[in-house]
Amino acid sequence: MPISVTCPGSERQSGFTLLELVVVLALVAALGAIVLPSLLKMQEAWRRHVDLQDIASQLRSLGYRTRLQARETIIGADGALPADMLSLPAGWTLSARQPLVYLANGACLGGEVSLQHEDVVQVMQLMAPLCQPELP
């Protein structure tokens, strides 16, 4: 009958060494440092796009809401008057060089509006009589 003799400590144990774990963590950290700024820029661009869609949606319905309230709405250099007709997301400003008028019957006389958020400026051309904005 064969007898097997093993020396203590000669058995190979499975698992990872501390050095292997440190190398993997260093690689993950380096990869995260490279990718994270791009993800933050992408998130900000997406938030800006969603905000633009929200503003465009409000502009699309502005003629209808003006007609329902039977009062004239004017978008000028200082934004929309009356101010409760448009609810802009935080940090956004809306202006028009030439006043853009929505008559009390809901018709729009047409014009150009400028939306600004930090360093981004978006210009929308609104054509009479419906003034439906188009996003690029």
Automatic annotation (TrEMBL):
<feature type="transmembrane region" description="Helical">
    <location>
        <begin position="18"/>
        <end position="40"/>
    </location>
</feature>
<dbReference type="Pfam" id="PF07963">
    <property type="entry name" value="N_methyl"/>
</dbReference>
<protein>
    <submittedName>
        <fullName>Prepilin-type N-terminal cleavage/methylation domain-containing protein</fullName>
    </submittedName>
</protein>
<dbReference type="InterPro" id="IPR012902">
    <property type="entry name" value="N_methyl_site"/>
</dbReference>
<keyword id="KW-1133">Transmembrane helix</keyword>
<dbReference type="InterPro" id="IPR045584">
    <property type="entry name" value="Pilin-like"/>
</dbReference>
<keyword id="KW-0812">Transmembrane</keyword>
<keyword id="KW-0472">Membrane</keyword>
